[in-house]
# Entry
Amino acid sequence: MREQQTKLVCRNVWKIFGENAERKLAELGNEPSLEQISEAGLVGAVRAVNLEVHEGEIFVIMGLSGCGKSTLVRCLSRLVEPTAGEILFNGENLLTASDTQMIELRRHKMGMVFQHFALLPHLSVLDNVAFPLAIQGTSKPEREERARQMISLVGLSGREESMPRQLSGGQQQRVGIARSLAVEPELWFLDEPFSALDPLIRREMQDEFIRLQSVLKKTIVFITHDFDEAIRLADRIAIMKDGEIVQCGTPEEIVLNPATDYVREFTRAVTKAKVVRVTSLAITEKQHDAGAKQGETVDISENATVAEAAPLFLDGIDQIRIIDENGEARGYIRREDVVALMLQG
Amino acid sequence: MKLAATSTLPQNGLRPSGWVVWLLALLAFLALWKLAEPLLPWAFEYPKALKIPAAKWISDFTKWLLNDASFGLFTFAELTRFISAVIDAPYRIVLSLLSTGFMSGRGSAAIQYLPPISWIGVIAIFALLGLYAGGRKLAAIVSACMVFILIFGQWNSALITLSSILVAVPLGVVGGLLLGIAAYRYRWFEHMLRPILDLMQTMPVFAYLVPILIMFGFGPTAAVVATLIYAMPPMTRITVLALKRIPSELRDLGNIVGCTRSQLTWKVLVPSARDSLMVGVNQVIMLSLNMVIIAAMIGAGGLGFDVLAALRRLDFGAGLEAGFAIVALAIALDRLSQAFALRNTETVHHGPWLKRHPYTLSALAIVVFSGLAGLVVPAFQTYPEALQISTGDFWSNVVKWININYFDTLEAIKNALLLNVLIPFKRFLLSLPWIGVVGILVVAGWRLGGIRLAALVGVLATLIAAVGLWEKAMITVYLCGISTVIALLIGVPIGIFAAERKTLWMWVQAIIDTLQTLPSFVYLMPAVMLFRVGDFTAMIAVVAYAIAPAIRYTALGIRNVDPALVEAGRSMGCTPAQLLTRIKLRLAFPEIMLGVNQTVMFAISMLVITALVGTRDLGQEVYIALTKADPGRGLVAGFAVAFIAIIVDRLISAAAQNSREKLGIAGGPT
# Structure
C-alpha cells in the first residue's frame, strides 16, 4: 500500500430527525440504541459513524434504501446539519465553520453529483456546467471556456447549446458530472449517480467513471445501493444498515471476511474470483512439490484478480509467479487455491 | 386488488355508535324545532340584547383609520395616497399608450401631442405575441379575438379594461411571488398567511370593494387595488406550492455550489419552478380580468362598466355585446399566457440585437408606421365608426322573439320550480331554530373531523347568528344549496358519461375550460334575458357558473381510477354497470367530493354577484352596503358569506379525507 493522506474524517457523527433532537440525544446518554431513539419519537438516520477517507481514493458507502447513506453524505458536506459529532476536512472541523466559510468551502473544494441529475431546467448544457462558476462570480468568457473543457471531458462536445430535457438520462448525468467537476473540487461526492439509469448505460457510465478517475485522481465519496457497483468501483467500501456502518474495508476484505450475516447476504451472489486479487492467495515461497508442473515463463501482475489469472492455468501449470510493476517477484499463486476459491462461487 | 377487496366491504361510514349519535342529534333537533318555539323563543330568533354590533365597530374603526390613524412617520391616509400614486402613475401611462394618447393640459383645453397606439398597432402586437409564443394558429386566434372587439365597436372599453389588467397583473404577480417566497422561507409567516389567504379567497369580492372605495375613492386606482387583493392569493399559494415541489436535490445542488440565500432563491429555486409559476401568472391574468369587470362598480370603467350599465337599463343587446367582448378578451389573454407558460426556452439566439429581436422590431415598426399613416388618414388611427357592426338590436330582437313565442313555457317552468321547490325549501330553512342548526353542524363537525372542527364550525355559525344575519344567511344557503344540487344533478352524469369517451371528453374539457375563463358577470346576461330578475334567474346563473367543477372533478376522478382495478373487475365478470357502480364510482368518490366542494365554492362566489338581479340574501346585503358605502355592513355580511363557505369547505374536506383513508388512498394528492 502506498502512503495516503487522510482527507476527510468522521468522528462519531449522529443525525437524529425529530423535534429537539439535540437535547433528547444528550438526554439519552449520547449512545442510544435504535429502540431508545424510536421510543423517544425520533428517527435515527445516522448513528455513531466513524470513517476516514484518504486522498485520491474512491470511498463507497453502500446500503439499501432507508439505511441513511444519503443523509450521511449530506452530513459530510453539511447540506444536512449533523446532530452530533465531528467532521474534519483537511483537519478543520466543518461543523464549527461559519456560514460564509461553508459557502467558500463548497464553492471551491466540493462537488456533488445527484441521483436524479438535478440539472437546472431553464439553463442550457453549457450554462448548467458553468453554473457553479457563475455563482462564484467568474467572468463569462472564463467560465464558459472552463465549462467547454468539462463538457468535452465527459464526451458531450457539440451538445453545449442543448437544453437538459433534450438529453437522454446518461447524457444528463454526464452534464451533472461535468458540472460537479467545473470548480476542480478536492472532494467529490456522488450520490447514487448511476441508479436512475438503464443497466447497459449504467455499465457504460461506470467505465467512463473509472476512466475519468484514472485521469483526475480525485478524493471521492460514492454512494450506491448496488453491491456489484460498489465492488467494481471502490478502493474501500463502508456498508451501512439502520444508520450504522456495519463493515468498512476493501472489496476483497469484505468479500472474503464478511463481518455480519447481513454483509454475507450481499457477498453471496458475488463471484469471488472477480474481486479477490492474486496477492490475497499468494504464497511467498515457491513450492517444490514432486511432479508439480512449473510455469516458469508465466507471470501475472499483482493487481490482477484471480479470475484474470485463472485462464493461465489452462495449460496445466500449477503455479504462477506474481510480479509488481517493477517486475519484481511478489510471490506465487497455486492452482489448487484458485480452484478452491472459484468453487466457492 | 387489495383496494378492490376493501372497497367491496360494507361501507359503514360510521362506527355503530356513530349512528346512535346522529339519531339522537336528529331527534333532539326535531323536538326543538316542532315543540320548543313557545318555550324557547331565543332558539328561533337570536336575542337582540346579545347581538354583536360588529358592523358599527368596523365602521368606527375605518373612520378612525382614515382620520386619526398614524404610524408615527406618516398617517394612514398618507399611506393610501402613496399607494394610489404608485398605482396611478403606471396606469396613466398605459392608458395613454392604449387609449387616450398623451395629453398636455386638462379637460377640454387638453391637447393631444402623441396619439395612442393605433388599432392596427395593437392588433399587430397581439398577433406578434401570438406568433412568438405559440405559432401561426395562436396568432390567428388572438388577432381574431381583437378584430371581433374592434368590429363590434367595443374597442375603447376593451382597451381601458386591458390597461387596468396590464397594471394589475405585474403588480399581482410580483407581490404574490414575494409573499410566496417569504412564506416558503419562514414557517411562521406561512402559518400566519394561510388563514388570511383562505379568508380572502372565500370572501365575496363585493365585501372588500367597500373599504377600498372608502380608502382609495371612486376610480380606476381603487379598482386596481381591489383586483390586486383578489388576484394575489392564488399566485401566493401557487408560489409556495411550486417551491415546495422542487426536488430536494436542486436545493442541495444550490447549496453545494455555494449559493448564498438570495442566489439560491433567484438563481435556482424560482427559475426551476418556472412552469408552475407560469400557471400562477395565467391565474392572475384571468382573475384580474374577472375582477376588473366587477370593479366597474367602484369606477374601473371599460367593459365591466358597459355590462353593468346595460344590466341596470335592462338593455340586453348592449350588455351582451360588451359581454362577448369580455369573452373575446378573456380568450385572447388566456391563450396567450398559456402559450407563454408552455413555450420552451430552447432556442438560443446569437448575433446583434436587431437580429435577436425580430418580433420586437416588427412590432415597433408597425406601431410607428401605422401611427404616421394615421396622421394622414385618420382611419388608420381610429377604426371608422361606419365600418362597425352592432348586433345589439339583433339580440334585443332575439330576446323579444323568444319572449313572445316562448314566454308561457318559460314562465311555466319558472313558476313550477319556484312554487314547488324553491319557495318551500326557503320556508323550511327559515323556520329552523338557529341553535338547532348550529347543534347539527357541531355534531357533523365532531363526527367528521373531531373536536377542533366541531368547535370551528360551531363558533363560525354562532357568529353569523350573533351579528344578526341568520335569516339572510339561510336565504344564501337556500339559493346556494338548490343551485349546487342542480349543478351536481346535471354535472355529475355529464362527467361520468364523458370520462370514458376520449373525444367527447376532449370537447367537454375544452368547453368547461372556456366557461371557466369567462368573468362571472357574463353569466348573468342570458339568465336575465330569459327570466328577468329574481331568485330563479339567480339560480340559473349560479348553476351555469358552478357546473364546470362538478363535471371536471367527476370525470377526473373516474379517469384516475387505477386501470388495474378496472381490469380486475372485468376479469371477474363485472358488467359495465357493475364496473361503474362497484369500482369506479366508489374509488372516485373522494375526488367527486372535492368536486362537490368546489361546486359549492363557485356557487357561493357567484351568488354574491347575482345580487345585481335582486336576490335577498347576504350578497344583496353586501351590494347594498356597497351602494351606501357602508364598510361595516359590507364587511360583516362578507365575513358571514366567508364563514358559510369555510364551514361547508371544512366539513366536505373532512368527509372526503375520511373516505379517502377508508379506501387506502392516503393523504390525497401528493
Summary: The radius of gyration of chain A is 23 Å. Chain A touches chain B through 33 residues (CB under 8 Å). The longest strand of chain A covers residues 6-17.
